[in-house]
Design a protein that fits this description.
Mean pLDDT: 86
Helix content: under 10%
Number of strands: 13
Distance between the termini: 52 Å
Low-confidence stretches: none
Radius of gyration: 18 Å
Order of helices and strands: EEEEEEEEHEEEEEH
Structural class: mainly beta
Strand content: 35-45%
Shape: globular
Largest sheet: 9 strands, antiparallel
Number of helices: 2
Length: 190
């Protein structure tokens, strides 16, 4: 890769909110995981930008949109190696008996995660190596008041050779042939 640039960057107005709204998850070792991303102007090409063997089942998880976040850290080695560490801290409100099994599996697997942020963009994390859970907690907040938070907090990490792939809008991601609106069910809290 040539070390050249052809554009600078202007300062943006305050139009980009932070935080994570939702994640879509597929097992990194599923036969239908994403194998490649094609870009047009830095965004996954509509309908065919994501490549896989067939449309896989992605499971949606609603996050606390004000407490969850994605951080990408550029890791540089003096010898010339560059990596992109993708760290997701996800807070899932509500704790139900059925959810314990789901979160135990989520904690133990290796995943590709498509992250829908509060600005409406989807970023694919763990494309090649997969995201693994590196820690977390079951939050009780002391169980003192009725309004105390009950939630699962999980942190996932991966180090990839490229930043998380920009898949464009939620509808662009869900409209991809490799995803094809194939969404699994969610636990409803009953």
């Amino acid at each position: 890769m040539a070390c050249t640039i052809s554009n600078g960057k202007a300062r943006y107005c305050k139009v980009q909110p932070g935080g994570i709204d939702k994640v879509y998850v597929i097992n990194r070792f599923d036969a239908n995981h994403i194998t490649a991303v094609s870009f047009t102007d830095g965004e996954a090409t509509a309908n065919s930008g994501l490549s896989s063997a067939s449309a896989g089942t992605w499971y949606p998880f609603d996050c606390d949109p004000y407490l969850s976040g994605l951080t990408q850290t550029i890791v540089v080695n003096e010898g010339g190696g560059v990596g992109f560490q993708q760290d997701l801290e996800l807070v899932f409100k509500g704790a139900y008996g059925k959810a314990d099994v789901v979160f135990e599996s989520l904690s133990n697997g290796t995943w590709q995660m498509a992250v829908l942020d509060n600005s409406g963009k989807v970023y694919l994390c763990g494309l090649d190596k997969g995201m693994i859970c590196t820690g977390g907690s079951f939050i009780h907040n002391g169980d003192k008041a009725l309004s105390d938070n009950l939630a699962y907090t999980l942190t996932f990490s991966a180090i990839e050779t490229a930043p998380a792939s920009n898949c464009g809008s939620d509808s662009n991601f869900l409209g991809q042939t490799a995803v094809s609106n194939t969404l699994g069910t969610q636990i409803d809290g009953s």
